[in-house]
Amino acid sequence: MQKIEIPENWAVYIGRVEDKPAMFRVNLGLGEIDLPLPQFTYCVQVSVPLKNPDQNGFSFDKERNVLYNIEDTLLIPKLKETDLLAAVFSFEGSITWYFYSQDAATLVPLLEEAFNTTDYTAEVEVVTDPEWKTYSEFLYPNIYEYQSIKNSEVQRHCEESGDHTDQQRPIEHWLYFDTEKDMNNALSKVIALGYKVEDSGRVEPEEGDTSQDAYYHLILSKVNTVDDINSDTWDLIDVALDTNGQYDGWETILVK
User: Fold this and answer.
1) Checking DSSP bridges between strand 94-101 and strand 20-27, what pairing results, if any?
2) Buried (b) or exposed (e) across 66-88, using 16+ Cβ within 10 A?
3) Distance CA 26, CA 1 (A)
C-alpha cells in the first residue's frame, strides 16, 4: 500500500459540542494537504472514560500524563504505514483518539490489545468516511477556533518575551477587502465597536508585481489585554464575514 508523508502541525483548542466545553488536539497539518487521502477510507475511534474528570469533563494533569504515555508507548507503535492519528477529543468525561486507516480490520484488534496492560476499558468504533467528513466538519477548527489557536501562539510568544499579558495596551488589527464599498461598510461597523481607525484606503501592488491586484485595507487599534484578545478578534471576523472581507490578525507592543 502507498505510503503518504503527513505533515505534523498539532494544535489544541477549546470548542463547544452541544453547548458543552470540548477539547480538541488536532493535526492541522492534514488540513494543509489535499483531502481526502486516497485509500484512508475508515475513521477508527477509540474511546475510554476518564478516571477523575474535572468540572469541564477534562482530565487533570496526573491522568493527562498517563493518557499521553498510553498514546506514545502503546497506541502509536501499533500504527502501520496504512494508519495515522488525526486528532484526540476530550468531552464529558471521556477521551477519544481518531485514527484514519486503509485497513481498519487489522488496526482495530491492535488498538484493543494496546489497552490490555492498562486499567482502562476501550470502546472502538469504525466509521466508513472516504470523504473525511469527521475530520473536516467536526475535528478541524472553524474560523473562530482557528483564530483562537493563532491568538494563543502570539500570547505564548509574548509570555516568553517577558510580557505582562494581563496589562492593557493598544492592539492593532488588519482587515482586507476587494472593493472600497466593502471597506466602507466595515468601517462603520468597527467604529461602532469602539475601534480607532489608524489607516484605511486602497493599496496598490508593488511596481512590476503582476501576481497581485490592488486591494483595500483597514488598520485598527483598540486598548485591550493579550489575555482577552479572543473576543475582539471574533468580533472582527464577524465584521469581515458580513462585508466580504478578510481578518488578517493583530500585533501589539510588549508591556514589561
Assistant:
1) unpaired
2) ebeebbeebbeebeeebbbbbbb
3) 25
Q: In this structure, what C-alpha cell is assigned to residue 162?
A: 517577558
Taking 90 as the threshold, does the pLDDT of residue 212 lie above it? Answer: no
502501520: which residue's cell? 80
pTM over the 0.90 mark: no
Q: What distance lies between CA 109 and its chain's CA centroid?
A: 30
Spatial contact of 113 and 125, defined as CB atoms under 8 Å apart? no
- For residue 184, what are the contacts with CB-CB under 8 A and spacing of at least 6? none
Treating both helix axes as pointing N-terminal to C-terminal, what angle do 180-192 and 229-242 enclose, rounded to 10 degrees?
Answer: 140
Check: CB of residue 191 under 8 Å from CB of residue 237.
no
Cell of residue 211, nine digits: 501576481
236: its cell numbers: 472582527
Q: What is the largest CA-CA distance in the chain?
A: 66
Q: How far apart are CA 113 and CA 220, in angstroms?
A: 55
Asked if pLDDT for residue 2 goes beyond 70, the answer is no
Residue at grid coordinates 468597527: 190
